[in-house]
Amino acid sequence: MKKSIVHKLLLLIFLLNIVPILAGTTIRDKHWQSINQSVLIYEFAINKEIGPAAWRITQQSFKEAIQLKARLIIIHLNTYGGALDAADSIRTKILNSPIPVYVYIDNNAASAGALISIAADRIYMRSGASIGAATVVNQTGEPMPDKYQSFMRSMMRATAEYHGKDTIIHGIDTTFKWRRDPLIAEAMVDPRTVIPNVNDSGKVLSFTTEEAIKHGYCEGKANSVSEVIKLAGIKNYEIKEYKLTTLEKLIGFLINPILQGILIMIIVAGVYFEMQSPGLAFPILAAITAAFLYFAPLYLQGIAQHWEMILFVIGLILIGIEIFVIPGFGITGISGIALVIIGLTLSMIDKKVFDLESGKAIGIIFRSLFVVMFSMTISLVLSIYFSSKIIASSRFVGMALKFEQNKGEGYVSVDDRSNLVGAEGIAATVLRLSGKVEINGDTYDAISEIGYINQGEKIKVNKYESGQLYVNRLNS
Length: 476
Prior knowledge:
By secondary structure, this protein is an alpha/beta fold. The protein folds into three domains: 19-243, 2-enoyl-CoA Hydratase, Chain A, domain 1 (Alpha-Beta Complex); 247-396, no CATH class; 408-473, CATH 2.40.50.140. The chain has 14 helices and 15 strands. The strands form three sheets. Strands 1, 2, 3, 4, 5, 8, 9 and 10 form an eight-stranded mixed beta sheet that branches. It has a five-stranded mixed beta barrel with strand order 11-12-13-15-14. Helix 3 packs parallel to helix 4 (112-119) and helix 13 (331-347) packs across helix 14.
């Protein structure tokens, strides 16, 4: 009898220690009661739209937390969502973190915020907070096509599955239960996912604090970070909070996609107005400043590379050559425009995107391309419209010529040489259609109307049009 009890106890100990590992349970979650020394906790906030700025803060925070040898990271979260690529980068950072990560939802963790929260080892929520509603939408709030929803569903499921299963012992029988049910994560994206007594309303799933606790998507209710730490069982601790520097605040402001679009518009408008009125200086200075504000924060963040900025500059040079040097508009101008677009587009894309699945990477590239093309088109249209308004305005009378210079008043673009029609002379150079002729000891530019004329041959002026002499051989 005693041996049977011992065997059962040994089996129970074995199951409690080995089975969770086999089931994939997360091992990063600490039992803080067993730690007597002071615990260094690193805290940072994500309280705005999920985007490049939030990703930058996350990178800096995790880097500093590891350097300081922090034992726990707490993300103070309040967001309605944002860009999926930035959210996925933050999610991946959390899942691969060597330090346990807790998320404290202060109010909302919607859409991309829900994905980030599910990646954490533990979730705590303020009373009245919510989590869920992770359907992928476009800029107007309309749901994206199902291929995007499918990708989001799989990512939400995979993130929930990462945390493994809990072991439940019934006597000597063992069962497993997902710590975070993957179907619940999927229902936060797809209203078609039916879960009895959880989501059978045909709507995208969102949880209140109480509902999240009930269904395993929240470990406890807390009204402050200090309460989170208390609920986690940490008694002796020190908090290190991430503080944004002035430079980081400025970078976060400048890498906002909306502001990037505005900067692109200023670049295009500045170049356009400078080409319309060369030497005005102000438009080109505005374009240079906007280009600096566009590329500098992206470069400092490690997104923009040297070669992308060089492509942009080369593109501007080719456009200038096409307009001011080469007549017409051909391959040089088209190449210049293409290089400008490529430089602006690739500069706003984190190169890690090319390591993602092809469908997702293409989606991110096209989104950046859309921002560039839309901004350039709007800027060009507005520039053409406002240039006519500026010229007509009395406020800018000194910047543009508004008066006619009539020929009758003595204004001419070239000397009048109509009196030379019928005059004879010789070809001062070979006229390969155009060249120089000498008439009465004076040299003039001329064009041969019929074939080449060799140097020294006699010529006769046939006509004078648009400031140009037209000649033929004298014997023709």
